[in-house]
Amino acid sequence: MDLKRFRRIFPVTKKTVYLDHAANGPCSTPVLKAIERFLSEWSNQGIDWMKWYNYVSRAKNLFSKLIHADPDEIAMVPNTSTGVSLAAEIAVAGRKGNIVLNDLEFPANVYPWLAKEKQGIAVRYVKSKKGVVSTKDFERYIDDDTIGMRVSPHNTIEELDSLLSVLRTM
């Protein structure tokens, strides 16, 4: 999809340069239409759960193809905060060790991990340098007791592969 066509489905871009925002991204016209259809149906007919469940299933299937995963490996959650909290619960359940974060994290991505300190999980922070957290800096904080790490969505695939290789050797 070319950029001009992409921008046309986000009306806010007619008057605004919209930069990254984790809480509420701009609403596209296809999403607005789907929400309006859902609300109208809910208001006038009640909810046909199977119909809407099928939409969710279709979204999972499409996303799983995009990331080369099985649809059963995809969990649908209402927002990032819920997803991070769920990941923290699953990753840490009954374990001891450490989690590696960086000091540029959005607070909602940090709080679920901080709550695990009460369960004996150490939270380590990789310090950024001029707004950048390097792979090498991350590697210095990873050891045999590392349960997981939170990396920036801005890391390249090569950087993520490097960090995963370090974790796999532990």
Note down, in words, how this protein is organized.
This protein has 170 residues and is mainly alpha-helical. It folds into two domains: 3-73, no CATH class; 80-168, Aspartate Aminotransferase, domain 2, CATH 3.40.640. It has seven helices and three strands. It has a three-stranded parallel beta sheet with strand order 2-1-3. Helix 4 (80-92) packs parallel to helix 5. It is globular. The N and C termini lie far apart (41 Å). The mean pLDDT is 85.
Specify the oligomeric state. single chain
Mean pLDDT: 85
What is the CATH architecture annotation of the largest domain? 3-Layer(aba) Sandwich
The proportion of residues in beta strands is 5-15%
Output the helix-strand order: HHHHEHEHEH
Q: Estimate percent helicity.
A: 40-55%
Poorly predicted runs: none
Euclidean distance between termini CA atoms: 41 Å
Largest sheet: 3 strands, parallel
Shape: globular
How would you summarize what this structure contains?
The protein is mainly alpha-helical and 170 residues long. The protein has two domains: 3-73, no CATH class; 80-168, Aspartate Aminotransferase, domain 2, CATH 3.40.640.10.
Describe the SSE topology.
Elements: H1 3-8, H2 29-45, H3 49-66, H4 80-92, E1 97-102, H5 107-114, E2 121-126, H6 135-141, E3 146-149, H7 157-168
Parallel strand pairs: 1-2, 1-3
Helix pairs in contact: 4-5
What attributes does this structure have?
170 residues; mainly alpha; Aspartate Aminotransferase, domain 2; 7 helices; 3 strands; 48% helix; globular
